[in-house]
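Here is one chain, start to finish.
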Amino acid sequence: MSMRSSLLVVAAALVSASGAAAETPNLGQSITEADLALWDLSVGPDGVGLPQGSGTPAQGKTVYEQKCELCHGKEASGGKNATLVSTKDRTVTNYVPHATTIFDFTRRAMPWQQPKSLTADETYAVTAYLLALAKIIGENDVMNAETLPKVRMPNRDGFVSKYPEKH
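Its structure:
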């Protein structure tokens, strides 16, 4: 292949690559703090990562009836999908070691048609509602970043955790 042919092949490859790069999903671009914040939702057992906001069981009942009941049934008794409160073998009382886990999962995955669409207040409220249904908290208790990590789940000691409990 002549030098001229080689240069034409390289030039064609560069033009082709630049056109293809314009059609890619922005791979290799820097991510902003705002972009990262949409995915950085982790909440630890100690409450690190919980947002500002609060909710009560009564508020949670309203949110639950509007956004959760279709799939999880009335009072989390089961519906189209199993629910942590009503599944025979796995319930909030025996399968969740930390109350913050309920908040974390609810915020990330619910409602299934629009995950991550609940506000912090709605998520605290639904969490409070589920905890009250399971008789873990009282009907008038308020869940927020301070109170939620203090909720002691009934089977908390039935799990091996990489997070040592603070005393």
